[in-house]
Design goal:
This protein has helices at residues 15-21, 24-27, 31-47, 53-72, 84-96, 109-145, 165-190, 209-215, 225-230, 233-259, 287-310, 324-348, 353-361, 367-376, 381-398, 407-413, 421-424, 427-432, 442-456; strands spanning 150-155, 158-164, 267-268, 350-351. With 461 residues, it is mainly alpha-helical. It is elongated.
Length: 461
């Protein structure tokens, strides 16, 4: 067992206790951040004359070699070590001797792991943001190509009013844009350095914490050493942001699944993102969308678990906090994988435009516009509402759309109708006369698309 403590103990830790306590099985993925933080720490120690230049160079050379060997596969991170910190330090001492024992001067594993996790999470926030940007680009392309693709808009899962596919996609653009902005906000709050906080009360060594923070790309050091080692707010925020991302992906997946059904046939999912049935040869299942929808609960679970873990922990560091890593690692892997796969699926989806428009026509989505027509001809809205209700009932009985009624049939229900009713309730008219900001009309959508393009050219995180 390679561990960094033991002087005050008179017998070895029970093997079961050791394995229960150890974190190497999951914190091994922090090896790069642990080495990066150690290098910054050593350079600072030399700057402050706590280490000699010769010791600094020797340690940096040893750490560089460990990093290289781990990444090449020559050096394996095994369960013989308690955690990633003991792995790095033990291998450093084996390679360079006593100089390696000075690596830990002026720090604790408490501020060390706090740093490693913050560096790792910061990188993952950027990677998640990049994946969301790729998804937004796909959504924007679909918007640009479909400003005149008419489809039904829904409320209560009932066809309500005609919109365009561009308008529908634009709603998801706004959702994922907010997700991206949440990550940017999180980055600003979390980008402060805990290294130098020690176990909880700082250190008597004359550390230059600002210098260390600047080397590692932080805005500065965290200003309270107890908070520095016990803060996991940034992980809770990241899990919350990822939960919201997954919620948006799940809503989108639900629509893709519905649209892919035989009843709707709005989309055809590419073969590369579908699977078949072991018994029913006709089946083409939307498994990727279903898995994304299903994995949302997994990310929610990580958020609730960490909130529950943290709610009863007094200051400062407690071992409970080790439970953050597996949850966060899994949630990050799950969210990134889902965003990437969903982006690929959406990018290859074929939209059945004619089917969408026919669904809008036969769903009476232009009924509100027929009522507006009557209002514009002097009929009180409440009366117009009743007249159009009778029109819809007539069409249901005849199995036709409002557009299919003859003028004589219109006049039989209300003499106010004239030949211009057909233009007033055409799908194109219903959509394109809606020109307020955020509406589905072509002109309004083109303005929004221009704003979306400009947004994607900006840097956020």
């Amino acid at each position: 067992m390679a561990q960094l403590w033991g002087g005050r103990f008179t017998k070895e830790t029970d093997q079961l206790v050791y394995r229960f306590n150890a974190s190497i099985s999951f914190d091994r993925r922090l090896y790069k951040q642990d080495i990066e933080g150690s290098m910054a720490h050593v350079r600072m120690l030399a700057k402050q004359n706590i280490l000699t230049e010769e010791e600094k160079d020797k340690i940096l050379e040893g750490l560089t070699g460990i990093l290289k060997d781990v990444e090449s596969g020559e050096l394996k991170i095994t369960d013989a070590y308690e955690d990633i910190h003991s792995f790095v330090e033990s291998n450093l001492i084996d390679r360079i001797g006593d100089a390696g024992k000075k690596l830990h001067t002026g720090r604790s594993r408490n501020d060390q792991v706090a740093l490693d996790m913050r560096l790792y999470t910061r990188d993952e926030v950027k990677k998640t943001e990049d994946l969301l940007k790729d998804l937004l680009k796909v959504i924007l392309r679909i918007m640009e190509e479909n400003t005149q693709t008419i489809m039904p808009g829904f409320t209560h899962m009932q066809k309500a009013q005609p919109i365009t596919l561009a308008h529908h996609m634009g709603a998801y653009f706004e959702m994922f844009k907010r997700d991206r902005l949440r990550l940017s906000d999180l980055y600003e709050r979390m980008n402060y350095c805990p290294l130098g906080a020690g176990a909880l009360a700082g250190t008597t060594y004359p550390l230059d914490r600002q210098y260390t923070a600047e080397q590692l790309g932080f805005y500065g050091p965290m200003l309270n050493s107890m908070d520095a080692v016990s803060d996991r707010d940034y992980l809770i925020e990241f899990l919350s942001a990822m939960s919201t991302i997954m919620m948006h992906l799940s809503r989108f997946s639900e629509e893709i699944i519905t649209w892919n059904s035989n009843e709707y046939q709005f989309v055809e999912i590419d073969d590369a993102y579908s699977t078949g049935s072991s018994i029913m040869p006709q089946k083409k299942n939307p498994d990727i969308a279903e898995l994304v929808r299903g994995k949302t609960g997994r990310v929610y679970g990580a958020l609730m678990s960490l909130l529950t873990t943290m709610k009863g922990i007094p200051l400062a560091y407690n071992k409970d906090m080790q439970e953050d890593k597996e949850l966060v690692f899994d949630a990050i892997d799950t969210t990134k994988g889902c965003v990437a796969l969903f982006t690929g699926m959406l990018d290859t989806v074929r939209f059945c435009r004619e089917r969408m428009e026919q669904s809008a026509r036969h769903g009476f989505t232009n009924a509100t516009d027929a009522a507006d027509y009557l209002v514009n001809h002097g009929v009180p809205f409440r009366d117009a509402h009743g007249i159009v209700g009778r029109l819809v009932l007539y069409c249901i009985e005849k199995n036709i759309a409002l557009d299919d009624m003859s003028l004589e049939e219109y006049k039989a229900i209300s003499p106010v109708f004239e030949a211009d009713i057909y233009e007033a309730i055409s799908m194109e008219t219903c959509v394109n006369k809606r020109l307020t900001v955020g509406a589905p009309g072509k002109e309004a959508m083109e303005k929004v698309i221009a704003v979306c393009k400009a947004y994607l050219n900006e840097q956020t995180v």
